[in-house]
Amino acid sequence: GDHAAACEALAQAVRLDPTAPALRVNHASMLRALGDAAGARAELEAALRLAPGDINARYNLANLLLDSGDEQGAVAAYQAVLTMAPGHAGARYNLGCLARRRGDIEAALAWFEQVVAQAPTHADAWHNLAGCRRALGDWDAARAAYERSVALEDSARSRYALGTLDLLQGRWRPGWDGYEARWEACGRTLPALPLPTWLGEAVPPGARLLVHAEQGYGDLLQFARFLPGLRQRFATVTVACPPALLALLAASLDGIEVCDSLPDPADFTHAVAIMSLARVLHLDEAALGRYPVPYLRAPSGAQAGAERGPGLNVGLCWTGNPAQSDNLWRSIPLGLLRGLRDIPGISWHNLQQGQAAQARAAGFELRDASGQWRDFGDTAAYLAVLDLVITACTSIAHLAGGLGKPVWLLSRFDADWRWLLDRQDSPWYPSMRIWRQPTPGNWPAAVDKLDRALRDLAR
Questions:
Q1: Which of 444, 442, 446 is nearest to 433 (CA)?
Q2: Which residues pair with 346 in a beta bridge?
Q3: How far apart are CA 358 and CA 58, in angstroms?
Q4: Cβ distance 385 to 304 under 8 Å?
Q5: Is pLDDT above 70 for 1?
Q6: Each residue of 217-231: pLDDT tens digit?
Q7: Domains of the chain, with CATH numbers?
Q8: Is the pTM of this model over 0.70?
Q9: For FRET with 237, which of 41, 111, 182, 249 sits at 20 to 30 Å CA-CA?
Q10: What whole-number distance in Å separates Cα of residue 50 and Cα of residue 43?
């Protein structure tokens, strides 16, 4: 476990025998573990000069290139490994991961199929194979592969992925069970609260519930709907949320205390993560009807900065948080939306904070007051003056839906679990209409259908 000591010992061994490739490979592994990527690369390249056919050195160099972000170099190195050792499962697996990362799902699927054919107990390969099948809409094959992965290695990420697939297919109850694996699967940590987690059981009179936020803004906006109903079970309900949502939720949730940091746990008897309310409340499509929409409203005094233009006033949001791993797949290229600007009778409004210049550069002029927005309360006030919101799968979709604002969602083919399959409506938001890619990556067809409907609406 003492990497530094091991590294020094190996460095000494290399000095004593500089012509031994295996020593240099082992030294490189220790350097890599200590974060010295340059030193590790130098050792691996030295090992390969000594022994060009050393598969272990070549594979470790490929892994190092992958870690450093040199994907093109990593691909070449893994291919070199396969030239020397065609049955190398690790190289095939990593080539599959790289293909999937760049969006070449068919190529990734082929690599993962080769891995599981060669190494049928490779749980990670089964998990990634399932993800490829899911991306291509082969739901049954995806489910079978996830189940195989779970059977081989009961990993949280496969249980979580299987849960979201259940939800996508409308299997609500098992879906929520699997969704509880999200913490471990996504590397998140529950707040360390000295409180029992509320699991839906009856509580004594005077019980006080702390609901803590998790994940993104959209998740909290989606599940804020269920908070007022909890007052029937608890004497007090408090939700801790990000500061950007404080004013909006305080104005929207009657009888709920809202704060922007975790309060003193001593003031509560129970706690629950907000997304766990789905499982606690046994939510399914029928149960959603018990929680009315709209449930959000803009705070009084919010600074919208909105001015209506002539005709139909439409807000546009084409991308989300670039830090999210799926942002590339949910975002719509602005160039594909440029044709919408030519529809007569529409005044367009920017809903992308700080990105109006990007739209103008793409030839899409938008009214823009986003620089005046302090928080989601201001954004909600802006949406209130619009007739329609068109958005990618972002927090704007949940804000508009929670406000009861007509919202058209552009969804990728392998939709987020919330939007289910093969339907244009949403049980979460009665005012929502969904425009889906008919095939993976096919934004033009989805935008074309939306374009025709928008022309009809603007007439």
A1: 446
A2: 312
A3: 42
A4: yes
A5: no
A6: 999 999 999 999 999
A7: 3-185 (1.25.40.10), 208-288 (3.40.50), 312-458 (3.40.50.2000)
A8: yes
A9: 182
A10: 11
